[in-house]
Amino acid sequence: MDTQWFKTKLKLVGVTTQALAEELGRDRAVVSRIINGKQVPTFDQVTRMSRIISVPMDEMLVRTGLAEQGQTGHCNPGFSEGDAAAYLPPPSVKDKVEEQARNFGGGAPGVDVWNVKTDALTLMGFMPGDLILVDSRIADRPKRGDVVVAQVSDWNTGSATTVLRRFEPPVLVAASMNPATYAIHVVDGNNVAIRGIVIASWRA
């Protein structure tokens, strides 16, 4: 993490550590470790931070050390939209959702609650509105049949989309009756990269 650069950006937009922690849905101590370069942020956290400080995603990836200069292409800040997105519960249910996540093995850095947005895996029981627990710490170790969250980049348009798919090496496949989800994505770690593995799901 380029700590000085990030702290300067936070000051410019008037965001405190506490406010950033609330936006990320994390404890202030965790966010403080990220800001001071003592903890590597997750891909999802970098996505949210890029929006909060209004910095392009490709620059955020380089500044946080998740990618090297020239490796990122041109990722739009909105790439997290797609089949699933990081879930920020409203204050009224935040404690309940955090407790549910802990019951399923959440609560650790790199294990985040996401929200299913589409019908890409309805035949596997994942319905829009369901909550899923995504472990980004094991993103490099998917097994056949795992449900994963992946980033599919389109370098022609400079955009990227998050997909929720079943991993059938070396491809990602949907489980839906919707023809819009039928495209098969070959995981190459560049154009299509797995960012996390779903370790639990529940209906909100």
Detailed description of the structure:
The chain has helices at residues 3-13, 17-24, 28-35, 43-52, 57-63, 91-103, and strands at 84-86, 111-116, 131-135, 147-154, 159-168, 171-173, 185-186, 192-202. It has 204 residues and is α+β, with helices and mostly antiparallel strands. It has an 8-stranded antiparallel sheet with strand order 1-2-3-8-4-5-6-7, with helices on one face. A hairpin with a 2-residue loop joins strand 5 (159-168) and strand 6. Helix 2 packs across helix 3. The protein is globular and about 50 Å long. The protein starts with a helix and ends with a strand. The model is unreliable at 69-80 (pLDDT under 50).
Question: Number of DSSP helices?
Answer: 6
Percent helix, as a range, is 25-40%
Head-to-tail CA distance between termini: 34 Å
**What is the overall shape?**
globular
Radius of gyration: 17 Å
Biggest sheet, strands in spatial order? Answer: 1-2-3-8-4-5-6-7
Query: What share of the residues does DSSP label as strand, in percent?
Result: 15-25%
Give the class from helix and strand content and strand pairing: alpha+beta
Overall mean confidence score, pLDDT:
85
Q: Which regions have little confidence, pLDDT < 50, spanning 5+ residues? A: 69-80
* DSSP strand count: 8
Order of helices and strands: HHHHHEHEEEEEEE
Largest sheet: 8 strands, antiparallel
Please write out the topology.
Elements: H1 3-13, H2 17-24, H3 28-35, H4 43-52, H5 57-63, E1 84-86, H6 91-103, E2 111-116, E3 131-135, E4 147-154, E5 159-168, E6 171-173, E7 185-186, E8 192-202
Antiparallel strand pairs: 1-2, 2-3, 3-8, 4-5, 4-8, 5-6, 6-7
